[in-house]
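Sequence only, no structure available. Ideas?
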Amino acid sequence: MTQLRPFMPAAATARQFRDALGQFSTGVTVVTAQTPTGPIGMTANSFSSISMDPPLVMWSPAKSSSRFQHFEAAKHFAIHVMASEHEDIAMGFARSGQAFDGLDVELNAQGVPLLGDCLARFECSTYQIHDAGDHAIVLGRVLSAASREGEALIFCQGRFRRFDNRP
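Reply:
I predicted one. Tokens follow.
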């Protein structure tokens, strides 16, 4: 067994810290919102459930993102949980906030773009935004949810992965 190598998180060990965090597997989501100039999306792996009553979820965008201000200003947004076959969609929104071309998209009553093909979708109103260093924690009150069966797309060790269902 390989021994753990302790280190103190600092600027000089930023890569080590990022690699250590990357050992934790997460699901992959695409968060969408409407802006004054049109729809926007962002791939995020910082999604989590927070509360059943009231129904709250969270995600955490980087403040350094060119899309951050749009999500910070959004009164409504949708979080889409990606399936294993959606790696291209996730990569598209990782590169560009306007990666909607060719996708099945409709607008909800609040004008938020909804992706038609995902494992789960949470349509939210912005509940609270908290400062969190170089990120923000965006809490959303879930107004509507939908889900289907399927295999989740996973992000671990800096790469997309697929869940292995072996017992």
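The CA atoms of residues 53 and 88 lie 34 Å apart.
Hope that gets you unstuck.
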